[in-house]
Known about the structure:
Helices cover 27% and strands 14% of the residues. It has helices spanning 2-9, 13-20, 27-32, 56-62, 66-71, 86-89, 119-122, 141-147, 171-174, 224-231, 243-251, 293-308, and strands at 47-50, 76-81, 97-100, 112-114, 156-161, 191-195, 214-216, 236-240, 255-259, 282-286. Strand 5 (156-161), helix 9 (171-174) and strand 6 form a beta-alpha-beta unit. It contains twelve helices and ten strands. By secondary structure, the chain is α/β, with parallel strands linked by helices.
Amino acid sequence: xxxxxxxxxxxxxxxxxxxxxxxxxxxxxxxxxxxxxxxxxxxxxxxxxxxxxxxxxxxxxxxxxxxxxxxxxxxxxxxxxxxxxxxxxxxxxxxxxxxxxxxxxxxxxxxxxxxxxxxxxxxxxxxxxxxxxxxxxxxxxxxxxxxxxxxxxxxxxxxxxxxxxxxxxxxxxxxxxxxxxxxxxxxxxxxxxxxxxxxxxxxxxxxxxxxxxxxxxxxxxxxxxxxxxxxxxxxxxxxxxxxxxxxxxxxxxxxxxxxxxxxxxxxxxxxxxxxxxxxxxxxxxxxxxxxxxxxxxxxxxxxxxxxxxxxxxxxxxxx
Length: 319
């Protein structure tokens, strides 16, 4: 399992996906599902259920594979998910059944089930065949309408996320100490920031000492469909390696992701400043020294200043 992370980070996908099959975190779920685990068999006319595995960001990242299962002939595709993801995942065109894990388990009517992180292995994903048809998730129009009046209507609109899930094994390295780490961005004229931070850290956005022109929305966000509706109305998201970063990528909204030097997640490979998982929408910023976020924020400030100076017509269309 540990070897798989090294191989995947190096882009050695054929070896990495095979090594990743050594994990066993899905065993408890497997015991509850009375139908076989998919091992790459033909899917023409079959019903297949994608299981739940790892965190919100992982589910957003791997649900893209539902389209590949449809391409293989699957007649019905379902997914188990965290409750906060259910309304968002319902916008995926290839998913027929959305089953929040806190509801009744859909344990009948399926031919196979598959852990989401096994899908790249069975679909033989390589660096040159990553499924990246974007966007594959969408903001709901009624949710967009609900949030529109709370989002700045002028200037460059930028969403901020500074902390990930504190239960993540590398959260101490991947999360910023506080919102104040972004203080240098407040020097840029014409930029309006929106807090997308939910859970730990969201209270930072309610402070008046940050020096940022910030609209605090995190404390009123109910689920990822709300977050998607906000993100869809922004010009850019700046985020640590979090579920919101994956959401922005899946929506094809420009996103600048801040990566730690230590134990960088395998998805972002090494040295690259782009991502083949989210081509054209994601830009990667990497720490040059472990723990030194200030130097990175200064680079982001310079790039954001250039973006803010562009005429409005050079920015993507917004709802």
